[in-house]
Amino acid sequence: MSLQDFKIRRHILPALRKVDVDQELTGGETVAQALDALMLRLTAVRRLREHHVWEAVRVIADMPDLAAGEWPSRRFRELMAADALVDAVIHLTSATEPKLCLRTLSHEFGLWTCALRYQPPGAGRITFKARHADLAAAILGAFLRSCRGHQLAAAAGRGQLPT
Fold first, then answer.
1. Digit-coded pLDDT (tens) for 15-43
2. In what order do the strands lie in the sheet with 111-118?
3. Which 3 state secondary structure label does DSSP give 37?
């Protein structure tokens, strides 16, 4: 994810004005604010660190429609303990509802591009993309975008992502 991909004025602020998300986290901020802040922080870091991943887990754990069953899983905790951030972030993408498919990973001009695909029941597909110099950060960025899209759809009353 790069600063060119993520323009807060163009993408986030209009969405926050349209949808009022009142669910508060333990720190007093809403889920939308926490996701937006984390996505913005990811654009500024050179390399994804363990605390960024745990922050994403904390935010997603407060979204009960995304975090299914035991969250985070034992496998995820083992990967984090082994400092396998890429594997841990990929595991996150497959451990949430709705299930996401890692569509593409490419590296060109020093940037990783990650595309995650969601295919709802019925027709249609939605792809979430992110670019970053760090592979794990690109995957996490695309995952957070999908979580944000899911959260906006749920808040708007649709219950699932649009097709």
1. 444 433 445 555 556 878 888 999 999 98
2. 101-108, 111-118, 126-132
3. helix
